[in-house]
Amino acid sequence: MFSGTYEHTIDAKGRTSLPVKLREQLAQAGEASIVLTRDAHSACIAAWPRSAWKKVEEKIATFSPMNRVQQANLLRFYSAQHEVELDVHGRVLVPPALRQHGGLQKDVVWVGMVHTIQLWDKARYEAEMSKQLAPDEVIDLFAGAFSTGA
């Protein structure tokens, strides 16, 4: 399970280091590569462990070529996917189209999102984090976690 927020940089060639903690979590899961694609809900890049992406591919394989919505999603997200290997320094090469989609400049933020990892341009991440959620959008993650049972 991926967690944490890590600030890094991306170089002119599109290489950025995957944070050590996230690399360790990938290694513990036996993963040697990640799949990068557009995030479905945000202007960032989603990084999936290869095994998790395989489950997405299995779902995609059930899409009907006659279903316009499914095909639009296939075009938007699946066609943008790139499997990338980490180099010996833990760096990944982010393809130009994904760098453009994510608006990646120099400063980037990796964010652990339980099953996936997000890669954000730092300014976009900070703008997203400054947004307030509506009261009905807030999930009480701790509801009942500390009840005494009395």
What can you see in these coordinates?
- The protein has 150 residues and is α+β, with helices and mostly antiparallel strands.
- The protein has a single domain, classed as 3-Layer(aba) Sandwich (Chemotaxis protein chec).
- The chain has five helices and eight strands.
- The chain has helices at 20-28, 50-60, 68-78, 96-102, 122-130; strands at 5-9, 15-17, 33-38, 45-49, 82-85, 91-93, 107-113, 116-121.
- The strands form two sheets. It has a six-stranded antiparallel sheet with strand order 1-7-8-4-3-5.
- A hairpin with a 6-residue loop joins strand 3 and strand 4 (45-49).
- The longest helix has 11 residues, at 50-60.
- The radius of gyration is 17 Å and the shape is globular.
Tally of domains = 1
Q: What is the CA-CA span between the terminal residues?
A: 32 Å
CATH architecture assignment: 3-Layer(aba) Sandwich
The largest sheet, given as strand count, sense and whether it forms a barrel, is: 6 strands, antiparallel
Estimated radius of gyration? 17 Å
**What is the SS-derived class?**
alpha+beta
**Can you give the mean pLDDT?**
89
Highest CATH level, the class: Alpha Beta
